Amino acid sequence: MKAIKEAGKKKKKKKQEEAGGVGFLPTLHLRLQHALSLGSRRRSDDGVGSKWECLDIQTQKLVLRSIASFLDCISKDNLKTPLVKDSIPDVVGALVGILERGHSTTVCTAAALVDKLSHVFSDHMLRPHFLHLLRPLLSLSIATQLHVATASIQALNSLLSFLTTTKEAQVWEMLQTSGTLTRLIYSVQGVPDGMGSDLLFYVGR
Asked: Both 26 and 100 in a single domain?
């Protein structure tokens, strides 16, 4: 009888491990979901995935702390479990929402977590969310607040390491249509507004 019980416990533990349900990870996942429940989710403007929204800075900080703790608990052993993989859209949606509507303090933290995200998850796991994360970071990379721009550029560098040939054209189009490339040129070269169209055309060639 004792042997049967032990075998049952081992079987249950194995199932939990396969689902990512052992240790602190399930608890941290529940905390993350609770924090996200304090805001709302809606379809993103670009139609790719969803984003989390809440303008309250303390709630944003709570969500960011929950994401940071969750990412810290991810390891090679549980990286590919359903609990972790299914959480990626929620984490990305929250970070995108805060990057778009957050306070400068929370935006910097969110950008740092995008940087961390690119080190925790593999290329193929983040690939579906690449452009979704890239769009707000491109806009923030030319922010007038230096600390915001710096954090965003660092996150961009990490994301762009995943850039594939098929995505290069989309990224270039995003740079041009958003006006980010023009403003980057103004910032770097000090070109006055209204005088950069010829320069942009030259660079685009």
From this structure: yes
* DSSP bridge pairs for 161: none
Q: Quickly tell me which residue has 């762009």 as its tokens.
A: 160
**Cut 0.90: pTM above it:** no
At 202 the pLDDT is 34
Tell me what percent of the residues of the chain surpass a pLDDT of 70: 64
CATH for 16? 1.25.10
d(CA 153, CA 151): 6
The four Cα atoms 40, 98, 165, 169 give a dihedral, to 10 degrees, of 90
Residue 53's beta-bridge partner residues?
40
The string of pLDDT tens digits covering residues 140-175 is 888 888 899 889 989 988 887 766 655 666 665 666
Tokens of 106: 């929370």
**Nearest one of 166, 94, 101 to 132, comparing CA atoms:** 94
Contact call for residues 107 and 125 (beta carbons, < 8 A): no
Angle at 75 between CA 138 and CA 52, to 5 degrees: 40
- At position 30, the amino acid (one-letter code) is L
> What helix, strand, coil percent values describe the chain, rounded to 5?
70, 5, 25
The answer to whether 67 and 112 have CB atoms below 8 angstroms apart is no
The range of the structural domain enclosing residue 172 comes to: 165-205
Does 155 lie in the same domain as 191?
no
* Angle at CA of residue 48, ends 144 and 63, nearest 5°: 60
User: Please, are residues 118 and 158 in contact by the beta-carbon 8 Å criterion?
Assistant: yes
